[in-house]
Sequence to fold (269 residues):
Amino acid sequence: MTHIPGIVITGASGRMGQMLIKTISDSDQARLVGVVERTGHDWIGRDVGEAMGGPALGVAVTDDPLEAFAQAQAVIDFTAPEATLEFAALAAQARCVHVIGTTGMTEEQIAALEPASRHAVIVRAGNMSLGVNLLVQLTKKVAAALDEDFDIEVIEGHHHHKVDAPSGTALMLGEAAAEGRGVKLSDVADRGRDGITGARKRGDIGFHAIRGGDIVGEHDVLFAAPGERIVLRHLATDRAIFARGALKAALWGQGKAPGQYDMVDVLGL
Ligand code: NAD
Fold:
């Protein structure tokens, strides 16, 4: 048994799943010990490297998460909210660090992670990149420094397959802006205006989602006042930034006390 942590990737065939498998396989800080897909998926039972169209990696795709988690020290999970809730219970049972990149979880689903986090480390973030987590801190600072003469709008763009809006990252940025202003996001959020909406309400935080092509992820936080505008922008051009952040989180979580953490903890921002 080596001290290098063993990692399981869920959602193996997904855009992020495949990027995570490449990142872990190329890393000398972690070992790929399991990959999980949905029951009935045509990758089940195949070597994951070959299923991805490359050389064999010596790891077969399974639809039995608990068996896979039992071999591992961490699970990296970029799938879908219902699947993530199921994996949280199983990862806690196996005492694995559970890194959650899945977005689009409801308040109830997030609250339902609490029992698992009493037994294991959960690191959850709507965006695992260093750049976006810095942008979150900057957004909080700028929002705290400006008054409500500055209208705040969060504008995000993603590829046409994305199923949730606004993006998890846009919501993180909106939360940061609200926190900086000392208000509750749910009291001021104005999502996707359409029709005769009336004039913009002072203090609102607006959200707008662009969907198209292969956009990996683009986020602007606009602070617009009469006579001047500030735009904070992050452009992701490669999913590898999310995979590298998730691996960092899986390694950081080793030996930490059970509980819920985010990338601000991992990156020490
Ligand atoms: P995708 O649709 O390409 O992949 C999702 C994968 O999950 C699919 O392979 C699907 O089969 C699998 N899956 C679904 N239910 C499952 C189950 N019960 N068991 C096993 N596998 C299951 O999507 P994607 O673009 O890879 O994104 C996945 C999630 O990650 C989305 O919520 C997305 O918003 C989020 N995301 C987060 C970050 C971040 O930094 N936090 C970055 C990119 C994407």
